[in-house]
Design brief:
single chain, 539 residues, alpha/beta, 8-stranded mixed β-sheet, 18 helices, 35% helix, globular, ClpP/crotonase-like_dom_sf
């Protein structure tokens, strides 16, 4: 399968070869996590040094329009994107490969980097490339025994058996239901991976799936198996008529304004744990609770701003969330369900539990085959510090009604209190399944079969009617334009809440970041959650 590429790549000298007035090849570097969207807030956008999928798409659009450009070398560095983001990058590179010659250079052959690189027409790796094609796996540390030894136990009330949000704290091992759903999710990811690589390399999905278990350890072995198209070092590909992307910016045609006459599409982000109140970021690196938090007030305000904007004819709600507060999820759901303008939900790496709840009444739901979704279930609980307090000489004293203090960690629930909490979460579960049944046109019985807290890959969710199609943000934007009767090039705009108070929004965010006063529990007094343990990192 040897190929003579003879690509005119990067040269240390500035001058182009004689007779060449413009570079014929451009080098595009890809490294980092590649989130789907740029940060929505001015402060976060200013501080972010990470390129997004959105920004990459804009770069590639410029390269596609460059008539003088023959090809692009996509040079993968430390590519740490999630499989869902990598799949979006794949689509962008495939759109470029439809018009230009695209070569992906991969010093590290990993499951995720190959998803993204499979959008290129040719895949090249150096002889010394690191090869890690061992499939997908997840690892979760259970803290139940650790906490118990320190005098802390955990009340974990859930609906139903697959709902695993708090089991890491209440149990000392993974139960059979959780293991079953995680394995099925990983199987769905590997099936999607095999489909992507098979399409790129012109083999059957069965052959591509076999690469995972083929014990490939070198670039040469990957070449012989058909995973890549050539083994070569970067200096063997370089030539004098190429330049890095940044060096050709002045040669790229400015982006043609989109057709805004008929209207536009609003994009509203919902990223992170769903909470009531304003969106914020928890800087404390706690399991499940650190990172961005999508406040219902902020998301609802953005959705209403999109509704009120006369030029906006459709809305895309981009969801990358494992859920959170049942109350906050329902408030956001209401804005989606009552919108007279069509709302399309696009799912990112996660759209589970409350992240699925908010999507149920969208006109269309788009997910990556690698999305983790579903988890239609409810959970509630609390830590019990009785033994911990005894060991450390702490003595909480109560005055007033016990029911008023039922969520206190100083003692377990009484039987009556436990019945009260279970009644409440069952009511939320019934409401959740009713939302899904109505929004997705399924029977309540079928929703319960698909629910019970179980997660699904986007690939499996499509087969079960929980989503409408596989794709990414560009797919969702195309669907929104179609539903609103807009032309295919109608513009999209990122919705942010209006400014509040006398200070510009930027100054307010800077002040909040400087004060950094964040509680450990982000849900206030709420204890009923449509939440999935978001700490599932595929490796």
């Amino acid at each position: 399968m040897g190929m003579n590429l003879k690509l005119p790549f990067l040269n240390s000298e500035d001058s182009l070869p004689g007779g060449v007035t413009r570079p014929t090849w451009v080098v595009l570097d890809l490294s980092g996590p590649y989130p789907e969207r740029q940060p929505g807030s001015p402060l976060a956008a200013l501080l972010s040094r990470t390129e997004s999928v959105e920004a990459l798409a804009a770069r590639v659009q410029k390269l596609r329009a460059a008539s003088w450009l023959h090809g692009v070398l996509v040079r993968f560095g430390e590519f740490t994107a999630s499989p869902a983001s990598a799949h979006a990058v794949r689509g962008i590179l495939a759109s470029l490969a439809a018009e230009k010659r695209v070569v992906a250079y991969l010093p590290q052959l990993t499951m995720t980097s190959l998803i993204a690189a499979s959008g290129a027409g040719e895949l090249v790796a150096p002889e010394s490339a690191e090869v890690n094609l061992g499939g997908f796996g997840v690892e979760s540390t259970f803290l139940g025994e650790f906490l118990k030894k320190r005098g802390i136990e955990f009340e974990n009330l859930r609906v139903r058996e697959y709902k695993a949000a708090l089991t890491r704290f209440s149990q000392d091992h993974m139960d059979d239901h959780n293991r079953e759903q995680l394995q099925a999710y990983l199987d769905g990811l590997e099936a999607a991976w095999a489909n992507d690589l098979a399409a790129a390399r012109g083999v059957s999905p069965g052959v591509a799936a076999g690469w995972i278990s083929a014990d490939l350890t070198s670039a040469q072995a990957a070449l012989e198996a058909g995973v890549i198209t050539k083994v070569a070092y970067e200096d063997e590909l370089i030539g004098p008529a190429s330049r890095p992307f940044e060096a050709v910016l002045d040669l790229l045609t400015p982006h043609r304004p989109a057709n805004a006459k008929a209207g536009r599409v609003a994009v509203v982000p919902l990223i992170g744990t769903i909470i009531t109140g304003k969106s914020r970021t928890n800087p404390v690196p706690l399991p499940l609770l650190g990172g961005p938090m999508a406040g219902s007030d902020t998301v609802v305000e953005a959705l209403r701003r999109a509704k009120e904007d006369k030029a906006t004819k459709a809305v895309v709600l981009y969801v990358n969330s494992g859920g959170g507060s049942a109350l906050a999820s329902d408030l956001i759901w209401r804005e989606v369900a009552t919108s007279e303008k069509p709302v399309v939900v696009v799912m990112g790496e996660y759209a589970a539990s409350g992240g699925y709840y908010v999507a149920t009444h969208a006109r269309a739901i788009v997910a990556s085959p690698y999305t983790l979704t579903g988890s239609i279930g409810v959970v509630s609980g609390k830590p019990v510090m009785t033994e911990f307090n005894r060991r450390h000489g702490l003595n909480p004293e109560r005055v007033g009604r016990d029911r008023a203090l039922m969520y206190s960690p100083s003692r377990p629930y009484t039987d009556e209190e436990r019945d009260h909490v279970e009644k409440g979460i069952l009511e939320v579960y019934d409401r959740f399944t009713a939302r899904v049944a109505e929004g997705r046109n399924l029977s309540r019985e079928r929703v319960n079969e698909l629910g019970r807290g179980r997660i699904w890959s986007g690939h499996d969710a499509l087969e079960r009617g929980l989503i409408d199609e596989l794709g990414d943000l560009s797919t969702g934007l195309a669907r929104a334009r179609e539903l609103a009767g807009l032309p295919h090039d109608a513009p999209a705009w990122n919705v942010t809440p209006k400014n509040h108070g006398p200070l510009p929004q930027f100054a307010q965010e800077a002040a909040q970041a400087a004060s950094v006063s964040v509680g450990v529990w982000p849900f206030g007094n709420e204890r009923v959650l449509t939440w999935f343990d978001q700490d599932v990192r595929v490796r």
